Amino acid sequence: MPKENKKELIIREALKLFSEKGFAAVSMRDLAESVGISVSTIYHYYESKQALVRDMITRANELTAKARDSFFRILSGTEKVECEPFVRAGVMYVTAYLRHEQIDPLLRMLESERFHEPAAEEAWQQMMFTDPIAHEAKVFELLASRGEIGETDADRLAGEYHGIIMLGYFTGDTDRMARELTAFYNRVFKEKGADRQ
After folding, report:
1. How many CB atoms lie within 10 A of CB 188?
2. Are the C-beta atoms of 10 and 31 separated by less than 8 Å?
3. In angstroms, rounded to a whole number, what is the distance separating the alpha carbons of residues 13 and 49?
4. What are phi and psi of 81, to 5 degrees?
5. Whole-angstrom Cα distance, residue 185 to residue 191?
6. Using CB atoms within 10 A of its CB, is residue 3 exposed (0-12), middle (13-18) or buried (19+)?
7. Across the chain, how many H-helices and E-strands are there?
């Protein structure tokens, strides 16, 4: 098996085991058995389980950065944000990103470990709230600078928007989330239209 394939297999199996059983409950021996390799092979790639988790988080952050860059390129290429794509982007953030095969098990693992492991709490908070809200605030700043919305408090809008996203994530009710995003869009984007009259 090529070197990169082993590393990918280790990551994939670790994500699965950590999210199912919890980080503390899985030993390197358990992981090696699941992957079908020796423990020493895992240690060749990762000095500890913590190093393995750091790599998972780094990979998740790289995936996130690519998605955000792509989002801003698409947003910059549009003249006006319409309601349907706005709502669809929010729903897809939950269904295609937060539920992504590399992100979802990592978040589940961090969530189960965050109450007794400060580093897991910090990573979970950053992935679930800090980074997304910062990104969303930049989006609303851009929309305000383009004159698409009248509200200029991007942090407030990002907090409200993210609350709706988290509603969909934690309840699994993306239909309700879509209705709330539509109402949010109609209020925030229509207020600008009312300002013009």
Report:
1. 20
2. yes
3. 13
4. -85, 120
5. 10
6. exposed
7. 10, 0
Cα–Cα dist 38/157, whole Å: 50
CATH code of the domain occupying 53-196: 1.10.357
At 3, the pLDDT band (50, 70, 90 cuts) reads low
**For 131-190, what is each residue's pLDDT tens digit?**
999 999 999 999 999 999 998 999 999 999 999 999 999 999 999 999 999 999 999 997
CATH topology for 1-47? Arc Repressor Mutant, subunit A (1.10.10)
Concatenated DSSP letters of 132-182: HHHHHHHHHHHHHHTTS-S---HHHHHHHHHHHHHHHHHH--HHHHHHHHH
Residue 87, Cα to own-chain centre: how many angstroms? 17
